[in-house]
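$ fold --in a.seq
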Amino acid sequence: MTQVWRADDRYRGGDADAGIDTRHAFSFSGHYDPDNVNFGLLVACNEERLAPGAGFPLHPHRDVEIVTWVAEGLLEHRDSTGEVSLVRPGDVQRLGAGSGVRHVERNAGDEPLRFVQMWLVPGTFGTEPEYEIVRGIADGTPFALPRTEAVLHLRRLGDGERTAVPDAAWTYVHMVRGQAELDGATLRTGDAARIADARDLEVRGQGSAELLIWEMHAEPSYG
């Protein structure tokens, strides 16, 4: 079963006066919908748009895996373990919060920054915080998320090009840019598809397209 969520259906958050525009796919912060708290292990998929110099001051996280994909601009990351990075388009960043970590995120460039940040529930809690960044990940390279039963796939498609959707109990497709067809539906920038028990599906590019696909084989367990 494929359920399409349009970009315009996302909950709008952020702080316009601080140069922050956020679009939430799931219940988040001041917005709560009991029927939309997660899909598989994914509990947040936020599209963040930051003006030059804008950002999020030091704030904490615990027992969540945070994966960031920069679509446009330059993201600066600093955290309480001493990690400092500049994240560019094509890089995959992972912050495993574990037993607790604090971090700062801001637009370090002179142009607007747009990035997608995704939070997943790990399979074990209270572990040591971890940080990694994969520079310039190649199209089609799977990124297996440690401590979870989840894999991220990056796909870039030209007009008419096709790619298989991974078979999984929970599959989440986020359109970073462009347009593509999935299971009879047209997805555009910011749209997403949630697929339960995906089998033998494919995505076809309509013009150029860039998309992130989460392959998940579990739901959160807090016991």
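$ fold --in b.seq
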Amino acid sequence: MAEQDAKAIHDGAGHRARLRQKLADSGGDALHDHELVEYLLALAIPRRDTKPLAKELLRTFGGIGGLMTADWQAIARVPGMGDTSVAAIKIVQATALRMLRNEVAARPVLGSWQALLDYLRADMAWLGVERVRVLHLNSRNMLIRDDHMGDGSIDQAAIYTREVIRRAIDFGSAALILVHNHPSGSPEPSRQDIDITRQIIDAGKRLGISVHDHIIIGAQGHVSLRAKGLL
């Protein structure tokens, strides 16, 4: 039994060395999704074959996007995942989001629209519940606050006109971009999405606060209500 264990450890070390060399020679694009997750987990669980666990995680969460955006408790429920291995996944997500958010914050938002969409998609596209956030901009359209208003259920999250405007006043915002996701994957707006956006626009006008857009994020893409002519 000891010989079998030693052989498994030796084989695993050799496999990881091959993955590491592939990464060094050709970059991350040379690795499959399960190999990226496998190698990441190997850093947290060095004496275990992490390939089966990596494949199970991707199956459970529907791919690497779903895995990275899943909450801590959901990942921890997968057999074989402890706090150290969950932390490895969440620190990668946090690092990626920090990098993308810094890109958004560095320039006027309206002039770096793709960077904004990349950030929002990474954070929200694969969430299992609806999340509402409001991006607060100053008079130069620089991001001054990325305000996470709250999470809801699988198909609904509350957004209140009075609360959005109150917070805009508190932050001294000149303009807003409303954002939420659709866990169904389709970013097509509902009648309720359109109505609440128009209510917030009307309330903001009276106080000199503009609403540039309402962006809906889904795994299948995004929709800008402004671009669709709905505002």
